[in-house]
Amino acid sequence: MGDWFSRKWSQISLNQVNFYTIVFILLISVIFASLLIYDEYKDFLKTAQNGIEIAKGVPLSSSLSYQDLPKTRLIKVMVEIATLALILFGFIVGLSKIVNSMISRDMERFMEFFESVHQKAEPILPNDLYFSEFKKMAGYANEMAMTIEEQKESLQQLNTSLEERVRNKTQALQLKNSALEEEQRFSQGLLESHKQFIRYAIHETHTPLSVIMANIELFTMNEGRNRYLAKIEAAVKNIFSIYDDLSYLVKKDQIDYPKRPIDLGEYVEKRLEFFDEVAHFSNLTFHYYQPDFPAWIQFNETKLQRVIDNNLTNAIKYTKHGEEIRVGVECSVGECLFWVESKSQKIHDPQKIFEAYYRERKKTDGFGLGLSLVKSICDEDAVEIKITSDNELTRFEYHFKKGNGENTST
Fold first, then answer.
1. Residue 403: which residues within 8 A CB-CB, separation 6 or more?
2. From residue 99, how far is each of 94, 110, 236 by CA, in Å?
3. Which residue has the higher pLDDT, 166 or 145?
4. Where are the alpha helices (DSSP H) in 224-299?
5. What mean pLDDT comes out for the span 91-109?
6. Is residue 134 part of a domain?
């Protein structure tokens, strides 16, 4: 009940207070008049009772006139009391109306002030208000309005400053973007020129390399093998491997590389024959573990050559002097495995060696692109790579999905 009364009282308006005040005054006036009338009526009854007792010894006509006298007085008193109560009620209501109108006028002035305070609020003049409490409140309200106005002006200045700074920053960024776009176009032109140069260089390199290899073979056929010529042949084969890597990098995004059935064991054996002279020049030997049956896979020959050649050249490059490089091909039910292992220094970060331009031993020749190229090919064709390396042995494994040997003539 107390909560309900508090909630209702907090929602009451000034007009409702005025109405309830009038009702309360009316109720008090009615009660006051009723009490006076009731008291007068009791006196009337007492007087009437006394008059009846006196009238017992008086003639009838005289007795009646004597009884009518208190009744007339009672009616007169009741009329006077009612009139007085009505006058009192009207006076109090009028006074209440005047006071409430004065309060309402002051409150309306405050309402107008607070409604317009978010714009340009006019200050409240204390002389326009009736009550001293409201005049004191007007002083506080005016101070608050001045503070708000100062803060608004400060915010406007800050917004203006921020807009100017944003405008300047935007212009600076636009200039920088224009410069970056110009640099990007220049860099793109340089990159395209660089690619074009590599294409021309690769194209022009192929012919002299082929001439050198052909003359080496002709000289060997006519004059026999020569120690110095063998060194030249090994170096040319290394150049051929680098040439093939560069050629694939330049063309891989421009041409399609279709798959075909390839006997992995036979193909690895051919590549070992190609690099045999290179290994012999480095005082290394190959030991090949052939599969018991043909190891057919469905793969592109150019991509397969890049995987095998890079692993063989890396093995030649990093195997310890005078050791043996073991290479093998194995087949199971669903896959064919190509592996290379040899004695070399331990690989400390097996995953990082597949990053472009990364080399664990800086003094070793090369650009660090071979294994990065191998990793991209294996990712494209779902070939799983496994590496194990310790202080004694390093082993690379490549797990190819098994294919079939149909249409091998292609």
1. 261, 262, 296, 297, 298, 299
2. 9, 17, 116
3. 166
4. 227-251, 264-281
5. 74
6. no
